Amino acid sequence: VDLDIAKQELEEFIPHVRSISDSTVRKMAGRDLMRFKQFKKQGVAVKFGRFSEKENNQIRKNIEEFLSITGIDSAEKLLFTSRYPEDKETISRLKAENLFCEKLSEGIPRPWRLIYYRARKIFDPNNYKGKYTNEEKEKLKKYHAMHGNDWKKISEMMARSNLSVAMKYSEIKSAINYGPWSKEETQKLMHAVEEVIRKRIETEDANRHSSSKKSNRDLSIAREKLFQKLPWTEIEAKVGTRYWRQCKQKWTTILTNKMTKGQQLYRGTKGLQAKINLIKRLHEMKVDDANDVNWEELSNAIGDVPKAYVQAKFYKLKVSCVPSWQKKTFSEIIDYLFEEKLPELEEKL
User: Which of 25, 118, 229, 263 lies 20 to 30 Å (CA to CA) from residue 51?
Assistant: First the structure.
């Protein structure tokens, strides 16, 4: 694969492809490029972010069909072959002969690597084992002291998924502050976010203009970069006293205050109007899954705010206003808010 041509062609579908490692780009050129072009012909855009229920069901269907074709016993054997060393050679041969990559990604407009990770998360029996006991937390600390960030090894010792042990260790590794943010913590957070964004921009810039070196250039950061998916565990490590989710929530608050110049957009009559606008716009979209909502487009229903702010407000709205919302589909939640809550809010306004 010609790396420069691969990057150029993939950039149409994955704008940040030049910040991805060369080995990953080569794999994507083989596994994804033709698929992306076919989806483009069908008018389907490549997706990122959370998987919808429809996509999860498609993954389940693809796995079930592959198991029936090959006769492999279970999804766990297929996706976690290293757990079954005696069957590894046979399973690997069956996967190669029956085009596992193509079959797994069928009908899903996403990079293959993300589909594979999602499939592993869905089918890993070690992934849904509830809260960690105090004994498990102590074991996790001990195993990390012995093996560092070898999450695969630790996950096998803990009988938990890789992701689960990595995220839990991130949460318990140090004393986490749950009180109000101090000025020092807020400054650390802002510096940490700036550092990772600047590093990302400089990497992209170096890939595009590798021939012309520019040192000590003051980078202007496009506003969109401030909203993009950030490496929160890396930012958490730089802040030191806060869990990654707290950092993410605080950053959204900082962005919102900057963008609205500190106005209280969600209080009083403004707040009522924002809720009304949000419900109406969601109802007009007629989507069946929250992952199909364009939250950035929706942000102006409330004001000039980040999409994470709008998502948080919608979450509070459904939790506080929709009875048994956990048992309802996304479209049922929107219908309830439109039919039951909207008239009440309009009357109150």
Answer: 25
Q: Name the one residue in this structure whose structure tokens are 């209280």.
A: 264
Q: Residues 307, 227: contact at Cβ < 8 Å?
A: yes
Compute the 3-state secondary structure of the chain and give helix, strand, coil in percent, each to the nearest 5: 70, 0, 30
137-177 per-position pLDDT tens digit? 889 989 988 988 888 889 888 888 887 888 888 777 666 67
Identify whether residues 190 and 161 lie together within a single domain. Answer: no
pLDDT digits (tens, 9 = 90+) for 88-102: 899 999 999 999 999
Secondary structure E strands in 98-252: none
**Distance between CA atoms of 206 and 87, rounded to whole angstroms?**
45
Q: Does residue 239 sit in the same domain as residue 187? A: yes
Dig out the tokens for 134 from the structure. Answer: 């105090």
Contact at 8 Å (CB) between 221 and 163? no
Among 316, 324, 317, 321, CA closest to 340: 321
The answer to whether residue 277 is domain-embedded is yes
Place 207 in a pLDDT band, splitting at 50, 70 and 90: low
